[in-house]
User: What shape does this take?
Amino acid sequence: MTESIYPFTEDFDVTPSVQADFDKNGYIIVRSLLDSEEVKLLKDALESDEGIIRYAFGRDDGEGGRSRMVLWNQPGNDITGVMARCEKVAGTMEKLLGGEVYHYHTKLMMKDARTGGAFVWHQDYGYWYENGCIFPDMGTVFIALDQATQENGCLKVIPGSTGLVELITCALETRWGLMWNVLQRSRSFSPWCMLSWSRVTRCFSTVTCSTAASRTTATSGAGPSWWRTTGPPTTRS
Assistant: This one.
């Protein structure tokens, strides 16, 4: 799929065509949104943070694999907070969602080489609704910190699945059978799409997604999630 993919330049903006792709497919890919130096600083900070190890928790995928993650709600003054609040991240999401946004949480997902488990099919809003977010005016920026390939479990999406209300309302752990039936039916209108990318690529998304288990190298990804609001202005760097 060649649509929804854009290179980042100094004059990058959410043009009508960018917005149309986002509204149609539920995501856009922006290549080189962060440069290699910025990604290295971000990855070095995360790998040296003792809190990442202390608060990380694992999740079994039901097929013998296990992935780890850690999340936080308050964007701090370190590089992860600056990244979440910067104009090219938060500002772009504001334009895509059509209004003021606030930081909901940032999550770091980690898969060990060959043993890192899959993240099964889900829509993030299915969880967010349970946490009090009653409107689906939300989105996530996925940042690949390592090379993401099909072999090590890159992101898999269903373009256009934002409108699958049945997925939004079902709880993943208790109604997986229902979700899988809906996912299979979704193939009749939209093929599942594998998103392989380098470390400097970013995905702005509201779409249904999953990742496979890692069969080769380790991989990790992080990203802030945003909720559109009419409340006080959000401070951005």
Observations:
- The chain has one domain: 5-228.
- Confidence is low (pLDDT under 50) at residues 166-178, 197-201, 229-237.
- The first strand starts at residue 5 and ends at 7.
- DSSP finds eight helices and twelve strands in the chain.
